Amino acid sequence: MAAHSDLYVRRRSTSTLATIVFLLFLAMTTGGCSQGTSPGVPLVDSGVTSAPATSAVQSPRIALVMKTLTNPFFAEMERGARQAEAELGIILIVKTAAQETSIDQQIAIIERLIVDHVAAIVVAPGDSTSLVPVLRRAQQAGIVIVNVDNRLDPTLAHELGLVGVPFISVDNVDGAYHAASYLSHTITVPTEALILEGIPTAQNAIDRTTGATKAFAENPKIAVVAVETAHWKIDEAFDVTKALLKAHPRVGAIFCANDMMALGTIQYLAEAGRKDILVAGFDALPEARAAVKDGRMVATVDQQAARQGYLGVQYAAQMLAGTKLPAETMIPIALVTAAP
Fold first, then answer.
1. Does the predicted model carry a pTM greater than 0.85?
2. Which of the chain's ends, N or C, has fewer CB atoms near its CB within 10 Å?
3. Extended strands (E) in the chain
4. 149 within some domain
5. Which domain holds residue 267?
6. CA distances from 251 to 12, 193, 240 (A)
């Protein structure tokens, strides 16, 4: 009996040892196939693993890349984009450069977004040509591109293969024409005029200069004596206006291609005691609206920045869903004056 008992014990020990070895092998094999799994988290859990995948599909990441937030125009653009984010259920990533002239920084932002594999980029480019190559690389990486505010150069975009990019903005030529025309209609005696333009390589700056020049040319009493850039900046416009008025003291009208420059201009005029110069701007910023109301400016142009931001994000989401959209969408402008 003792012999049979010893045999049973030996067999049971052998069986137990085999079981332990098998379990250890199974644990090692399973561990090798689940690298990166957190301790205590089940390897298969439909309630945990499937939800993030579904969320990723339903909530694409769309980046809004703007020139800067130092200009309230772009704060309004972000407001519209945030409204679209709330309504569409997407994840909005907002990126801006330090200044409107920080083109290299905008390029670096887009390069990072390519690495981050965002689904779409809605871009208000600071320059119409410099960003085309990096946006082409983004498109080649499968990222949807939507262009708002300032048009990318169509010739260069075609040459580099950046195609299928919808553009959302206003007719900048028409907007500037209406603002400068409203100003020029009040001039009945020989008057010199100035035009302060934005970044010379930005298409919206070019278009606004074109529109203002056309309006001034329709009044034979007006002679445009200088067209100078102040790069969209309030401080630079102050300095440029000061220098130009020293060279051309008989100036009686100034068109500024955005309100930031117009605000810099009227600040200088106030300090210089020049109340005889008519100023028009573009963007309808709250400060510019106030200046129009109290007579320091005669007109500005509302180009619906929030609407541009909203439509930019909406178009990106629709393109991701396979919707075909128009190549160009022009938003109506509104001339803001003190007239009732």
1. no
2. C
3. 61-66, 91-96, 120-123, 144-148, 167-169, 191-197, 222-229, 251-256, 278-280, 299-302, 328-330, 334-337
4. yes
5. 172-302
6. 108, 5, 14
